[in-house]
Fold this protein.
Amino acid sequence: MFAVGLTGGIGSGKSTVADCFAALGVPVIDTDVIARELTAPGGAALEAIRAAFGATVMQADGMLDRAVLRRRVFADSAARHQLEAILHPRIRQGVALKLATLTAPYALIVIPLLVETGDYRDVLNRVLVVDCPEAVQIARVMARSGLAHGEIKAILAAQAGRAERLAVADDIIVNTVSLEALRAEVAALHQRYLALAAAAPP
């Protein structure tokens, strides 16, 4: 399966770009969605997270308190690495299972931490980076999430920088344009990926 990895910093517009590809019929595998499934009640990672981080990251109803856990892991790099060690192998397995069921010409895999983990390169044929200035990222995240400026800066500090992401990119979408222009850019890339997938060895 020809696979394109989509990545970008928080607030760069990954979800918008992924939605544009999905609208063209491209199957989208989102590692954030898999992570949420793994950490939902009954999810395969929930007990391991509870065992590692204790009851303070759990709500009374048995749900994971994502806000508490997020603050903890972005304030403590050791805790973040511990969480990643629990989640990333399970997410990777989920991606492989979903890829194995697809018959489309190519798939888009949304991997926010592609650069940070250094993972997935063995299954990706292309890397597409969604890029925008940091000030735009911060404004978008504040508008949609209600997170404080300092919390967003902490998340950005834990992520790869723009230069690091752009260095691994095969293709780049600068997401500072209108949605109409973004759709046109995605449509052009879609045609390119269809051609590359058709030419790729089985």
User: Anything to note?
Assistant: The chain has a mean pLDDT of 93. The beta strands are 2-7, 28-30, 106-110, 126-131, 171-174. The chain is about 55% helix and 10% strand.
